[in-house]
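We now fix the convention by which a protein and its fold are recorded. The integers have meaning only within a learned vocabulary of local backbone shapes. The record below shows the convention in full.
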Amino acid sequence: MGKKDDKAPRARPQTVKTEQGDRWTVRGVPARLQKAAAEAAWAADLTMGAWLSQLVEQAVADSLPPSEPSVIERFAAIERRLDKLERAVSAERAEPSKRAAKRPENTLPS
């Protein structure tokens, strides 16, 4: 990459509306990387544009923060947790009656 320290800070580029098939020029890419990209696109049986699009889409997806679960997903998770708790409480309430049933009649509880 070139030195950016020599230049004033650049403003963030504005969103550019492009039509399918528009040309896009990227300056400052060394010839060896241009050649490597062309070879990689050819090996993947893609055009340079299609190969670069896949690469950029993946890079953007990797840089995005994980998405928040939807409200429906959060409610479903809460419902699953409540169901689990209700089963545990029901099992705990049934447990003393099971222990009493196993105890001999003439034995006092400890």
Remarks:
- Helices lie at 31-43, 48-63, 71-102.
